[in-house]
Amino acid sequence: MTDLLHASGTFDASGLEALIAAGHVRGPALIPGQVQPASLDLRLSEEAYRMPGSVLPVPGERVRALVENLALEPIDLSRPACLARGGVYLVRVQEVLALPERVEAYANGKSSTGRLDLATRVLADGSPRYDRIPAGYSGELWIELIPRSFNIVAQAGVSLNQIIVFRERQVLTQAALAARHAIEPLLFGAAGKPAPADHLFDGRLVMGADLERPIVGFVAKRTHKPLVLAQVGQHSAADFFEPVTRPGGGYLYLEQDRFYILVTRERVAVPADLACEMVPYDPTAGDFRAHYAGFFDPGWGLRNGRSVGLPAVLEVRPHTDDLILRHGQPIAAMAYETLQRPCTRLYGACGNTYADQDGPRLSKHFAA
To answer: pTM higher than 0.90 for the full model?
Structure first.
């Protein structure tokens, strides 16, 4: 454990388990799959509240104080409860942190969460920034939930978010990323060849949308039916989504404030000593959001130890204007970071849900 607390980089699964064993992460006993190759799933507790809007604590203020002052009503998640589309909710997390000095954490929604258009952000006491858990933090965590497209049935024990834990996070610079990509390709084109150097931009690998397949994606439908988070593989896709076919003429018209699931043209690979996060390509490229969930664990896009790449799913919502998208148009990017040590428990080795995705894919909640 001492070595982990002095090494720079992001913790892998064995490092996370050592943190838990040392009491730096406390809560109910872990469940299978909760520790991912380089991230830890957070579980909802039974304590939840409907809020009048989004809110952040100021330095020195506890999130619970915001709940006591602002909550409209309590919600008991010890049994299934419906969270209404467009509502804002705060839910306490089962896990409690007592991070060592100089060790901090960063949160993001799980992939299945983003594919449901369920916006989630983590709040920590005294931290005026979403999803950022400061070094040495000790206390509760809360998740803000905003169902955007569907009414959602939630209950305690469900995992919607995950955290990475790190000491001196080591994100690859433009030069380091270019050097690594030249030696071991991290991004591949549609033909399986390594993506050229012009895909590197500002320390990120840039990806475009794939609009040249028969079904390019899905768009969320307006529906009264609730989606039950605990029911995996039990929902009919036709009740919640419509397929989006290949656009004639090459132009895909995306309507303002509608939710689309698309896929990248390029294929991403994450070697055992790295993790990566999907980040905005360029805020000047348009007013839309291309992802909710961003962590890609080591092992993504690896086959028998060799990098071959897998496409990344995009969760797109135009904000202030309609959007016309074309094949290959840059829409998102990947930022890579180094682990403290190579991960031996790679993504896909334990039957992960999206390890074989090869196109636009709905969340695990829908029947195949």
So the answer is: yes
